UniProtKB/TrEMBL annotation:
Source organism (scientific name): Microvirga ossetica
Annotated GO biological process: polyketide metabolic process
Domain of life of the native organism: Bacteria
Pfam families linked: SnoaL
Protein name as it appears in the record: Ester cyclase
């Protein structure tokens, strides 16, 4: 399977499709339970969480993904009580894939904009980093 397709399946089937068991197929046995826990915790705070793939770039064993993350905060998140407000931010992740499985990932998320949006401030998507 193409490395970009592995990341696309992570978004389509696991995150948006809520099929967390697919993590066992897409990730190493060491990584799958860690992602499952992280995704479950995020879903507790943002029950309608959705990710959109904006861009995927692959070279050798690395896939770089730019995502759009959206959701309504219906539970506590990082010490912030539920606000009922929506957030919409960009994220960038680097995935290392070996033997058809994700072995590690590293990412940057626009937490500054997310926190401002959840606080009810006028923080637009891409305000800090995107010129589009």
């Amino acid at each position: 399977m193409d490395n970009k397709m592995i990341v696309q399946r992570l978004v389509d089937e696991v995150i948006n499709g809520r099929q967390l068991d697919v993590l066992d197929e897409l990730c190493t046995p060491a990584l799958a339970p860690k992602l499952r826990l992280a995704f479950m915790q995020f879903l507790e705070a943002f029950g309608d969480w959705r990710q959109t793939v904006v861009e995927l770039v692959a070279e050798a064993d690395t896939v770089v993904a730019r995502f759009r993350c959206e959701g309504t905060q219906t539970g506590d998140w990082l010490g912030l009580p539920a606000t009922g407000r929506r957030m919409r931010i960009d994220e960038v992740y680097f995935f290392r894939i070996e033997n058809g499985r994700i072995v590690r990932l590293w990412g940057l998320e626009d937490t500054w904009t997310r926190r401002r949006q959840l606080a009810g401030e006028d923080a637009r998507l891409g305000e800090l980093g995107s010129l589009s």
